[in-house]
Design goal:
Layout: H1 2-8, E1 24-30, H2 40-56, E2 66-72, H3 78-90, E3 96-99, H4 103-117, E4 120-123, E5 140-142, H5 147-160, E6 165-171, H6 174-189, E7 193-200, H7 208-217, E8 221-225, H8 231-242, E9 248-250, H9 257-263, E10 271-275, H10 280-292, H11 301-318, H12 323-334, E11 339-341, H13 346-354, E12 359-361, E13 369-370, E14 374-375, E15 379-385, E16 388-394
Parallel strand pairs: 1-2, 1-3, 3-4, 4-5, 6-7, 6-8, 8-9, 9-10, 11-12
Antiparallel strand pairs: 10-15, 13-14, 15-16
Helix pairs in contact: 2-11, 3-4, 5-6, 7-8, 11-12, 11-13
């Protein structure tokens, strides 16, 4: 299996170009361009690793192979994301979509494409609290927790560090605004004060004006709730250049290897939170990604593998390669009762389901879907030390 996975991840086995007549197409809708483009290749590889594992086990439903169809959500351009999803459904015939990634484009695709066409979406990274109450006709799920939870976690980290006042900047979209609101509500509820809460736009070349306003307001730490490849990074760089702030608290969109590779040495002592897991499932995921040559230590890779796996297992459980089968069975395969299933055990899960048994998919993130089909989730608290990420604890 190791040899095959290394040879097939992100190759013809799971590419649209190799799809045969009996293949079951699954959309992989992620921001391959845009403010998180350094993250999405690893997310896609992880989702396609699950697809390759299932195909190596013989596929679903007596031999149907899965094929990944990639589309670019751009993360920020709703029109482009909607067009990509429409192509996936109308031209490529995808049964379900692993994605989208950023909250704004995810909401747009859900409302304008997925719901009208009856197609299930499982997002690995769209975390806006607003998606919890979106009109989805039971078609939307996510393997990452809502930012309502992340805001509370980040506020708790800061209070534990004795931080009493902060300035906040957020990317001016659904994700940034939702996380900012959640963080501020929790931080102020814990007795902290926010000197200024100000949005920033992505794609600008100069953030000195925004940083100047935040510096004038004051605060012990600048909280950056943006994207590592765009405005969030620009805000940090501008703050460093002006000497306005030297310590930053960051949300999940700021976690990337590229960020610490480029400026990690300048932001030592900064810290943040990102959805992450520990335990048997996380260990199993690390083992299979290392064997396959996939970067599984990037953010939202576990969630991407789990999202793709859940789509396939729900089809198997429902006895049909349809979105209807996925929607009706996804919560059942994700939660107890049933045989616990870890990364690398998808073939075992398919066999159990084929024999009429039940599975409880644990996956790389300790999957437990609650409420309207979203993850309860745990978070990794990290600090940046000597230009690298260092785990403090899990919350």
């Amino acid at each position: 299996m190791k040899k095959l996975l290394m040879a097939t991840t992100a190759t013809a086995l799971v590419s649209a170009g190799a799809a045969a007549a009996e293949d079951v197409n699954i959309g992989v809708l992620l921001g391959f361009t845009g403010p998180i483009e350094s993250l999405t290749p690893h997310m896609a590889d992880s989702a396609e690793l699950a697809i390759a594992e299932i195909n190596e086990a013989g596929g679903i439903l007596d031999g149907k192979m899965l094929a990944a169809v990639r589309g670019d959500s751009t993360c920020v351009d709703s029109a482009a994301a909607t067009a990509a999803a429409e192509r996936m459904i109308n031209s490529e015939g995808v049964v379900a979509i692993m994605g989208a990634d950023c909250s704004g484009v995810t909401g747009a695709v859900l409302a304008n494409v997925a719901v009208p066409n009856g197609v299930v979406m499982v997002s690995p990274s769209a975390t806006s609290p607003g998606l919890s109450t979106a009109e989805d006709n039971g078609l939307f799920f996510r393997t990452s927790p809502s930012d309502a939870r992340q805001g509370e976690v980040l506020a708790s980290i800061m209070k534990d560090k004795g931080v009493e006042s902060v300035a906040v900047t957020y990317t001016n979209n659904d994700y940034g605004k939702g996380l900012s609101d959640a963080f501020i509500s929790s931080f102020e509820g814990m007795g902290g004060s926010v000197t200024l809460n100000a949005p920033h736009e992505d794609g600008k070349g100069d953030y000195s004006a925004e940083v100047g306003a935040l510096a004038s307001a004051g605060g012990e730490v600048l909280v950056v709730l943006g994207y590592s490849d765009q405005g969030g990074r620009g805000m940090i760089q501008a703050a460093l250049d002006s000497g306005a702030f030297d310590t930053f608290a960051m949300g999940d969109g700021m976690y990337s290897d590229a960020l610490v590779a480029d400026i990690g040495g300048d932001i030592g002592g900064s810290y943040g939170s990102v959805p992450w897991s520990e335990g048997e499932g996380a260990d199993a995921f690390k083992a299979i990604t290392e064997a396959a040559g996939v970067n599984g230590e990037s953010s939202f890779t576990r969630e991407s593998y789990d999202a793709a796996a859940l789509l396939a297992l729900a089809m198997q459980a429902g006895g049909a390669a349809t979105s209807e089968a996925v929607a009706a069975n996804l919560l059942n395969v994700a939660n107890a009762p049933g045989e616990p299933i870890l990364p690398g055990e998808l073939g075992k899960a398919l066999q159990i389901l084929a024999e009429g048994g039940e599975v409880d998919y644990v996956g790389g993130t300790g999957v437990e879907l609650i409420g309207p089909g979203e993850a309860a989730g745990t978070y990794r608290e990290y600090t940046i030390t000597d230009g690298a990420y260092e785990t403090v604890t899990f919350r």
